[in-house]
Design goal:
The complex is a heterodimer of chains A (322) and B (312). Chain A has 322 residues and is mainly α. Chain A is built from 15 helices and no strands. In chain A, helix 12 runs antiparallel to helix 15. Chain A is flat, with a radius of gyration of 24 Å. Chain B is mostly helical and 312 residues long. In chain B, helix 3 crosses helix 14, helix 12 packs antiparallel against helix 14 and helix 13 packs across helix 14. The model of chain B has no long low-confidence stretch (mean pLDDT 81). The chains are: A mainly alpha (322), B mainly alpha (312). The interface between A and B is large, with 51 and 44 residues.
Chain lengths: 322, 312
């Protein structure tokens, strides 16, 4: 098993490099003149040059030979590619602050929404999936499955907008949008959390239902029933335990997405988190922020996938034998 | 397509019966599923409406400002059944025109992702070794960037190409962004499936008969994994229609044509002023299409699953 874990860790290196290359290719090679894109068509060459400097796109793409003569290896690596690889991002164009300090301010806000959503949604999804599995082929299963497909088919954006209008503007139960620091945030967070749970329930429920139904037909469940274990016990100890394996893979991998926050939710409810920041950065052509966000979250995702696979190997020894 | 290992296997169940192909079996099973038939009809209806969107008559009707701004839905005129938007254009005609945009984008994006995913999956699964490792690296890299971020990054980067942005109202950007992100799942599935087929008797026989790699891959193995592509197409369309809405919301989508995404996006400000008909119409259009495709995808999965053959 240790051999597997070591191999898996080594396998992460090319993947992370691939992510750098992908991010870098998209942002540097595909959009060839980001300064022009940012400033528009009617600016002088000097202004353009200063914007290029601010964005860090006046450096060579891969290796900086000019700087290498003066500063050695550190100068050689002073290029756009290594800036991305080594997390050296230019300052935000709009805030004129380092992207890291902006992220540090925004991430806790996103987590304040996403962590409750994650916990509540996961609990509900598992519960509903087990109810489906227990009553498979009968009305509870049908009802829940139909509702899950309905939820999957609705555009999340419409759900958010409708809930904002109905609960916020029409019934005036919650504030329509906004944010507050400290305990005051609870008032503003309640509706987004509620809506987000409802909007995300469909996919998870359907997935865990499939897993749970598969488990229910397996031999160990039949054995447990045959030796007289109560149905409730079968579900909550035997089945749930085995369902937890895909739960681990699914949930650990989705943790970086928590930091990302919900792009649209935060924009609509005016929550000053990471998602809102990224959307705003796209509208403002704030390239450093968009690029840093994509790269940092992707690397976090890679690491989480690594941890997931290791946990998976620890839980299920068959994995490391493949 | 019918002379595959699968149909030999099924013929062995009942030697007296004529050989049945997987496709005829699947079609028979799908036809017995009433809900799936209904969904197929719904999707067909959308396709017809999308084709209607190509007529100049509808294009003109969708851009004509002949009603009052935000006129309420009424029976007065067909164009007003779903009300009017802020410029006094008929929401009904714009919705129908949007069907064309949505289906064009979704189908083209799905075709791109299917092409990329199938080709890479076939090559990786068939050749194995370093080619396989390369493809695995490629898809685990793409998979490491959260899909929504990759889509955004791609659409954002492609905005720099003025020609892409100006032509066809930016549709190529949306299609590329969706198509080049969506291929990973299919690629992985096909790779796994091809690996299982590689050493099957029919492949060995084809090789012994002198068939080349390309012929074996595309003529012999591909038909046997084609059901995966059909299922992916059905469910991939759902993802594309929904993602178009997301991109429109970010201003990275289609620029000056009526699309469902833009109609929902407009509702950000409209809904609080009591204008509900535009967002309701676009949401309903998306919902019905996605519901039909979701159910159809599930039905196809059941109908095409080779393991379920002969069980009914």
């Amino acid at each position: 098993m240790w051999a597997y874990i070591v191999r898996r860790i080594f396998w992460t290196v090319p993947t992370v490099l691939g992510v750098v290359l992908l991010t870098f290719t998209l942002f540097s090679l595909v959009s060839r003149d980001p300064a022009r894109q940012y400033a528009g068509k009617f600016v002088s060459e000097e202004v353009l040059q200063s914007i290029r400097h601010k964005m860090g796109v006046d450096k060579p793409a891969f290796l900086n030979f000019a700087a290498a003569r003066q500063r050695g290896v550190a100068g050689l690596l002073d290029s756009q590619f290594f800036d991305v690889l080594l997390f050296r991002f230019p300052e935000s164009m709009r805030y004129e602050q380092p992207v890291w300090s902006i992220f540090a301010r925004k991430i806790p806000v996103s987590l304040a929404i996403q962590v409750p959503v994650f916990v509540v949604a996961l609990g509900l999804e598992l519960g509903l999936a087990l109810i489906c599995a227990a009553g498979r082929g009968r009305w509870p299963d049908y009802t829940i499955t139909v509702l899950a497909v309905v939820g999957l088919s609705l555009p999340a954006l419409s759900i958010y907008l409708a809930a904002q209008w109905f609960f916020g503007a029409y019934l005036e139960l919650f504030p329509v949008a906004g944010w507050d620091t400290g305990a005051g945030a609870v008032r503003f967070a309640a509706l987004p959390i509620l809506v987000s749970v409802v909007a995300s329930l469909g996919g998870g429920t359907r997935f865990y239902r499939t897993v749970a139904v598969d488990e229910i037909y397996s031999d160990y469940v039949r054995t447990a029933r045959a030796k007289g274990v109560a149905e409730r016990e079968v579900l909550l100890t035997h089945v749930l335990r085995n369902v937890l394996i895909p739960v681990i893979t699914n949930t650990l991998a989705s943790l970086p997405a928590l930091v990302l926050g919900a792009l649209f939710l935060e924009r609509i409810f005016q929550i000053p988190g990471m998602g809102g920041l990224i959307v705003e950065a796209i509208f403002n052509q704030d390239r450093p922020v968009v690029m840093a966000a994509v790269y940092v979250i992707s690397v976090a995702y890679c690491i989480m996938l690594l941890i997931t696979d290791i946990c998976y190997a620890l839980v299920d020894p068959r994995v490391s034998l493949r | 397509m019918s002379t595959s290992a699968v149909s030999f296997a099924s013929a062995a169940w009942d030697m007296a019966a004529p050989p049945r192909s997987l496709w005829r079996d699947a079609w028979a099973r799908l036809r017995r599923n009433r809900l799936a038939k209904l969904c197929l009809a719904v999707v067909a209806l959308y396709v017809v409406l999308a084709l209607a969107g190509f007529t100049p008559h509808l294009q003109r009707a969708a851009s004509e400002m002949r009603y009052d701004s935000y006129e309420l839905p009424s029976w007065r005129a067909v164009g007003l059944w779903l009300g009017a938007d802020h410029l006094g254009r008929s929401v009904l005609w714009r919705l129908l025109y949007g069907t064309r945009i949505a289906l064009t984008v979704a189908v083209s994006a799905c075709l791109i992702s299917i092409f990329v995913g199938t080709t890479l999956g076939l090559i990786a699964g068939y050749f194995g070794r370093w080619i396989d490792s390369l493809v695995i690296w490629l898809f685990s890299t793409v998979n490491s960037v959260p899909a929504i971020l990759l889509m955004i990054a791609m659409a954002y980067a492609l905005q720099g190409f003025e020609t892409l942005k100006d032509r066809l109202s930016g549709m190529p950007i949306v299609v590329l962004a969706l198509g080049l992100t969506g291929w990973v799942g299919l690629c992985r599935l096909i790779r796994g499936e091809v690996m299982r087929h590689r050493e099957r008797d029919y492949v060995v026989a084809a090789r012994a008969a002198g068939a080349g790699h390309l012929r074996i891959m595309f003529r012999h193995i591909l038909p046997n994994v084609f059901h995966l592509i059909i299922i992916d197409f059905s469910l991939g369309m759902v993802g594309c229609v929904q993602a178009e809405v997301a991109l429109a919301f970010l201003g990275l989508g289609i620029t000056d044509r009526p699309s469902w995404g833009r109609m929902i996006d407009d509702a950000k400000l409209e809904l609080l002023r009591g204008v509900w008909w535009q967002v309701a119409a676009a949401t309903a259009a998306i919902f019905i299409l996605c519901l039909a495709l979701n159910i159809l995808g599930d039905a196809l999965r059941d109908a095409l699953d080779p393991r379920l053959r002969g069980t009914d």
